[in-house]
Fold these 4 entries.
Entry 1:
Amino acid sequence: MGLVSAILSLPLAPVRGVIWLGELIQDQVERQLQDPATVRRELEEIDAAAAAGRLSEEERKQAQQAVLDRLRPAGGTTAPNRKE
């Protein structure tokens, strides 16, 4: 039965490969977006733009909030407290 199912599912191999690649890319993007160095750099760029007058105070707050919102898990819940 394993041979028959392997032969029948062979045409789906490229689709599985594309799905796997997509998941791999998504994981990497999520890691980069939540990297503390990336977040800090983006917040510094926002502050620099506000200091240069390219952003109003309201725009600065909105941009900072958008960066910080990426750090929160989906669903708006906070991460559980870990005991160290």
Entry 2:
Amino acid sequence: MTAVAAPPAALVAAGRRRRLLRARAAVGGLTVLLVVLFGVALVFGDTVYRLDEVVRVLLGQTVPGASFTVGQLRLPRAAEGVVAGAAFGLGGVTFQTMLRNPLAAPDVIGISSGASAAAVIGIVVLDLTATETSLLAVAAALVTAGVITLLANRGGIADTRLILIGIGVAAMLESVVSYVLLRAANYDLQVVMRWLTGSLNNASWDQVGPLALAVLVGGAVLASQSRGLGLLQHGNDQAAALGVPVHRTRLLCILAAVVLVAFATAATGPIAFVAFLAGPIAARVVGPGGPLLLPAALTGALLVLAADLVGEFAFGTRYPVGVITGVLGAPFLLWLLVRSNRAGGSL
């Protein structure tokens, strides 16, 4: 007797179940890793505290020494690393998915450069406070994204045109940063360079609160547009044919992604390559066709926390988190360029 082939509908359903199970397993594994790294960040430092002491601090109890070190120093730093990494991951994977190109990260197409240029001008020229500098950086990132979108919008936004214009705008903004730095006083240079490198050293609850709110709101907007965002990978015409309001979906996704990246950059500085790395890494963990928003957010948070721990303990001196992610991201960029050229630019 010959075996009866399964109907196409059954094969499609089975494929969807496999992708869903793998995506759930990936999210579960990334979450466990994130919780473990978060615990390590609270336990280890110049003074190592027992896990039960850390838990008591988290529960609001007073523990001599640990209440200040863990509750006031390590906990805000770790929390800011998680929410900033999640914001960079969400923003990066949104642009990469929508523009169908793994190179279309916010730090490549100029959005982070807009925030950086504004922050440098705010510190060196305008002598703004930290809060005022953060607000200026957020506003500048939004304006930069709007300018890039308008310049690319000729008869509809072409993905390649937007990326190329974004790279050009980023180059101009980096020139502005270099010019301002050349004219900066020595006492401003230290503050500016610490900000430009990307660091969690100045983490505080005042920064974590607004950033966490931005992640919640931006993440909710992106989640509501997840179906349309996924279909945009196949092109605007195909997405429109499947009932996706293309212009509305793109506008909402761009706005949410820019807000996420802007708030994260304002809080920590432009931590290099996190937005660029999170999406491709999450795509390989989840597998083909799997949802990427939540895995990319978890991956971004993992990258920032892990890089911060490496910068603190792996070398004889302490390095800001942006230095570590930059060292890791540069070879990945080269590899991705080669692979993207061969595979047609897909995640």
Entry 3:
Amino acid sequence: MRVSDKTIDRIYINSAGRSADYLMAVNHYHNYYELYYVRHGRVRFYVNNSLFTLQSGDFMVIPPKVIHYVNYLSQCTRINIYFTEEDLYDNSVPFMPDLSSRFLRTIIMHVPRIYRDQIHIVIDAMVAEENTDDSSTPTMQKLLLRELLLYCNRFCIFRTESDAESKADKILDSVKYINENYNQPINLELLAGFAGFSPSYFSKKFRITTGTGMKEYLTYVRLTHALNELITTNHSITEIAMNSGFGDSNYFKDSFKKMYNMSPREYRKSMLDKYILYEVNKES
């Protein structure tokens, strides 16, 4: 799994072609929003423990820190637009009244064919502006993104439900099992048996579906819960390791540092320092 802790200083857009045999190296998440558009072709997204099939004219909104992975089902042209929540607000007021309820969560927006030319004009303008990249580009991209979202709000068909077939997907059932039982002993053999597959087939299918290995995903889920416990309780590092499903506190510390580039103790201190600083500034 690739974790990006990078931030962005303005709105960015990228357009690229992908063949059906193109494979993302691993799944990932980042600290900003991604607006993914399928201009031509068909893809299958793994997002937030669900599967979504997108085709020409489909947008997907991916919020920050949400794991996602894509399989290309045909020759595709895809557009990625990266932005932060601040790009959609002016003095803490959203530029669209229903912004939070429609655009700031995982959602698919389908553009009917009759309206795509208008959408493509705005996207093409954003790509051209990206290539210009001068002092006016940040402002231009913000205006163009807002124009794009206004068109989407007017023309698009919205949906949040995942593919119907995913309800019976054994791998997704296994993903849900991990999320619900992360603090219990879990291994490849147990999950393969739960799904009704051999361990080798399960391992292969899990990676194809989610973009990461089963053990890596399990570790990610456990670390996510450990993060929350570190900043919301005064439990010891050993207690947090046990509560999060790590049978060994040293393994927990090593895994944590590998993922976040600091020890659990250092992370807790940094978050407490930020909270104290926030409270002081708030009072002053």
Entry 4:
Amino acid sequence: MPLSAGRLRHRVTIRRPVQTKTGDGGFETVWTDVATVYAEVLGLNSRESMIGQALQGVSSYRVTVRFGTDITDADQLRYGVLDLNVRSISDPDGRREQLLILADTASAQATG
């Protein structure tokens, strides 16, 4: 199905982890904004998971963006106040028109 501009009505910011030096000689991960793009964001499901010895709610999302968007599975998407961890990226029909991103709110990656 062709990707029409009308479907891309949400704005998401692509965030990438960058290692920076701390004053004590160590490193910390800082999330840096890479780009803000139009996307279609659809909620898929919610569940509860044990994360860090605590039961937390996790929501999954399907995000569609134009093909060629610079994104990796190590990135996050900021959608409103949500930080979505990218889990997979695919070109669903092989036509190089769109990227289908599966992401969730699980706190498996550090947020900042």
